[in-house]
Amino acid sequence: MWSALVKEENGFKYLEVGEGKPLVILHGIMGGLSNFNEVIDFFKDKFKIFMPELPVYTYPLLKTNIKGFSKYLHEFIKYKNIENPILLGNSLGGHVSLYYAHRHGTKVRALVLTGSSGLYEKGFGESYPQRKNYEYIKKKTQEVFHDPKMATKELVDEVFRIVNNRGKILRTLALAKSAIRHNMAKDLVHFRMPVCLIWGKQDIVTPPEVAEEFHRLLPDSDLYWIDKSGHAPMMERPAEFNRILESWFRKRKILP
Predict the structure, then answer these.
(1) Which pLDDT score, from 0 to 100, does residue 251 have?
(2) Is 33 within a domain?
(3) Which of 96, 160, 200, 226 has the fewest other C-beta atoms within 10 Å?
(4) Are 217 and 185 in contact, with CB atoms under 8 Å apart?
(5) Predicted confidence (pLDDT) per residue in 191-229, tens digit
(6) Contacts (Cβ under 8 Å, ≥6 apart) of 210
(7) CB under 8 Å to 4, separation ≥6 — which residues?
(8) Residue 236 belongs to what domain range?
(9) pLDDT tens digits for range 18-72
(10) Residue 83 lies in a domain
């Protein structure tokens, strides 16, 4: 939907749309722009939305980690002269947002996390010995969602290509190991910005207890549940996701 508007400048590939306060959206490890189509469409008249494509499969292997992507985000924010952004991240994107906020907390207006890693994530790691088995990869992709129909043939094919590409699988594994190394539990208690946690009740990648732990550790957070949703509620239940998020923005005086 929005891919035709993606720009490539100065080593960054990104979407920029809308007017207002800056909202920076970060996708997950096997995600992309299309994961947030409904969110972008809903909020484009309320925020200036930026969505950089994280260089998951193109960055040098030694920089393919949470810290490296946080630096990438920092450079992007500097390049676009974005001040006091709201960061919205899913899965890996949430973890990168958390690490960035840990390093540059006074510059972040608010955080929105959905299915974020940073404390615990059940990744695809155990799938790699069976990566040649299409039906197994299909099953693992379906597990990301509450409704297995969300795992379209196009999506399964893309995941299958990723896990069977040597360069991509090495980077995926590097990110998985980095996510474990960069556990944020000790840092969250120092966060001062408001945080909105929107979680799928049926998320088995970052299960409900992960959301509850985030909520317990973050000093100023609100936790919302979306039923019949897995790891990507902005895809499975976009209308409910957008309603919750808009209400939270109003509660926190980010929107009038």
Answers:
(1) 98
(2) yes
(3) 160
(4) yes
(5) 999 999 999 999 999 999 999 999 999 999 999 999 999
(6) 116, 119, 120, 121, 199, 203
(7) none
(8) 3-120+182-251
(9) 999 999 999 998 888 889 999 999 999 999 999 999 999 999 999 999 999 999 9
(10) yes
Return the pLDDT at 123: 60
Strand 7-9 vs strand 12-18: parallel, antiparallel, or unpaired? Answer: antiparallel
Question: Ramachandran region of residue 10, left (φ > 0), alpha (ψ -120 to 50) or beta?
Answer: left
Is residue 169 in a domain? no
Cα separation of 237 and 1, whole Å? 18
Q: Which of 251, 250, 244 is nearest to 38 (CA)?
A: 244
**Structure tokens that stand for 159 in this block:** 């995941």
- Is 128 within the bounds of a domain? no
* Rounded (5°) CA angle 215-218-224: 30
Task: Determine the length of the chain.
Answer: 256
Count of the separate structural domains present in the chain: 1
Q: 127 pLDDT exceeds 60?
A: no
Cα torsion angle, 162, 98, 71, 5, sign: positive
Give percent of the chain with pLDDT exceeding 70.
96
- How many C-alpha atoms does 69 have within 13 Å on its Cβ side? 30
Give percent helix, percent strand, percent coil of the chain, each to the nearest 5: 50, 15, 35
Which residue carries 């499975």 as its tokens? 236
**Residue of 105 and 248 predicted with greater confidence:** 248
